[in-house]
Amino acid sequence: MSDNPETSLYQKKEVKAKKKHGIFFKLGMVILVILFVLILPIAVFLIYSAIDGINPIEYIPEGHYAYVNIESAGQLLQKTLSVQTLDSVLSSPETAQLQGAIRSFRASPFLSSWWFGTASNISLDIAAYPGNNFLVFAKLGFRSAGTRLLPFILKFKADLFEDLKELKQLEENGINFWQYDLGGGQNIYAVSYKDSVIVSTSKDLFFSGLSKKNEDEHIKTLRKFLKEKKGGTLSVLSDVNYFTKDTPKDDSISNNVVRALKFPEPAKVDLTLDYKDIGISGLCKWDTELEGLSTVLKKQAFIPGILNRLPKSTDYISLINMGDPQFLFQNGKDILGSSVLQSYNSANRAARFVFKKSIDDLLFSWMGEEIGVFEVKQSEVPIFFVSLKDEKLCRQAFELIYTSFFVDRNISALVDGIRIPRINFPDILTSLLRSFDVELPSPFYFIEGGYLYLSQSAEALASMMNDVKRGNLLVKTENWKNITRSVSPETSVFVYYNLENQIPSFLRTNEALQSVLQSFGRGLVSIRFEKDKTLKFEVYAQKTEAHSLGELAAFPYENKTKLNSYLYCGKGVNNVPFAYWTSGVNLYALNLADKQLKSIKLDDKAYLNLETKNGIVNSVWAVSARGSVYKTDYNLTVASGFPILTGEKLNSSPAVIQDKIVVPVANKPVLLYVDGSASFYYSDDMNTRLRSSPAVYGKFITAIPRSFDSYMYVFDDKGKIVSGYPKALDGISAVQPILYKNNSYEAVLTEKGLFTLRPSSILSGNDGETYSIDLNSSCKTQPVYSENLKMFFLITDNGFLYKIDTECNIIDKIPLKQKNAADYLISLIDLDSDGYDDVLVSGGGNSIYAYNANFSPLNGFPIAGTGVPYLIDVDGNGKSELISCGIDNRIHSYTGVSK
To answer: How far is CA 842 from the centre of its chain?
Structure first.
């Protein structure tokens, strides 16, 4: 024992320090060591699975006509499914089943889940070969840990895939692989190899893909392609000759050009896909043995001057900017086709006979390099144009044509102060134009700014000229700037369309293409030929909103009060339309027909609801925050015995049940019932206070007070809790339950997104099945049920609208335009009187969107407004208008909604 006091003190401190590491510390350390021992091998295995991989392009055999690189299969799938134009493409009866499968898959909540995104974020390399064969490399990365473990799992669980009768495990050449029988003698072969899964429809390709190839020219081409690709959703390297070798041997110009071209190098194409737009760009090298065609295609593209002269009302333009007609005819005789050349020769002979001039002298001598057609929204008649390389010769040619005995001149058209001449072309010219599918027997025409414009409509020409003179040009609009931002204005062939105002003439007879472009209503195509025998092309389509509906005369109504409630609508005596709302302590009634406004002042903040039958207002009910209750008729005439004073604090709108109202008491866990005879009573107690209006279904009231201990209550019209209730819920709910199927079933939605359908306890002996689905997202918007569709509609907080059937199957799902709004509201209205509800969604701003039962956007929406819109006939023409109120307190009345 030491006599040194300092040493003794040090030892004591050391002992005390050691005492701090007690049993719990030691237990924690043991647990950490065990976890480390368990996790470390897993982490090492995952890292090994990620780095022990292959480069797929080094394994792809030669002979493919297309190679596709997809950076993320999951993102491609999600983006492809989000493009609802796909529904239009698959709308035929033959593809209806596929369309339904795609919609169901799109609606599935796991598609947007975290684990699906992680599991599907794999790259794909696909090679397509003649004979409808393909070879796919799915590069899994660390996910290949699962495929590496599969052989060991099968040793202990040999019957893992026994339900897949068509799937067999085989061994050949010392390689274990899987074969799936598709029927009809077709098979798919698959194997896991390092960090990849290799799949093919050809056994020879399959085994060839298992061996690394030498660094030959074909692999160098693939490597260069991947290095230079733009990084879109999907990239393609393709042998164009494979697709052009079977071009029909007819006499059309386009097929003549295709047959004459050869493509010495694969074409490169990048696809960028998103919900709002689609972009395709690419380039390819070309060659031809036809010297004239080569001369035409090698002509360097430049910016067409017409693009700076188009009026802002242009809905469609198609132009060719590859040389003047004289140049094209001189160099394109080998590809113009016999019918065009025959028409040209006939016109040439006739021109020499009638005008003593050749077609070259009469027409081609003054025509420039830009030729095309466009339409303006004021007219459905197209306007043809041609640039002028010599305006003086053009005018002389027209004067010469006028002097002909065969041509009639008429200059009587005067439109908007502009005199527009008209000419009746002789047959020699109309027949030549018809060979190019141009029908202009007697056009109006105008020469201005180096261009000749021709149209069968003088109004279209006048509208175009007035816009141009005022400087109202297409290139100045935001629509044009947005869609051409990433596209070069230098072009050889150019097409632009805008479907917001009308359907261009080239689409009016093509319903399939109209359907496809309905969602992507604005787009362009640009093809550019360059001197180095390169063809570049760009395609861009942009999603657009539907057409706006018209507003009834004298609307919107400028409301001078700020609404504290939703707008309510109904009809009074003689079908007079009324709108009702509250503002502060006041209740208002507006006659929508003559704009007369009436009001009643309550003693505190006012809340209201309507008692209606078939759209007719039986009573207007209003309550104040101090507990005063009013009952009036449609014209705010107070009923006998009202108002009454209840002395209760109220803070929500009343619910109407038969001839009475039900409203939660703000500071008590009860409901207040007030009937038409001005008497009131209370419901049975709930476990806590209800802070929002209850829901009404026939003679029953449903309510879920928001609480950590959530219960669902059902009350009868006397305020008594129905036997079998309250029922405990699986989580907190911010919305009220729904009763359906004659109150035999109930629907409950929790805040965490668990949607449950189960038998209600209202009917005794109701032993039906219970269904549920987890939407993997929080939900605070009141769901609704459509009786005629037998469907539920609900919105998740992350901005998706769901359609769910009565067995909790998700039928469809779409993203809403109003993302992450806190005030979503769903309304069901049969807008087109087809017997089925349409779905209207407000929230997140001053817009109401509408969809039909298949979630296709309805024309005319969005409209201005928030809350619940109403269909009511305002002008008495027998057709209902759609009434809405905006966040600016303006009341709108939209026409053209219902049939």
So the answer is: 17
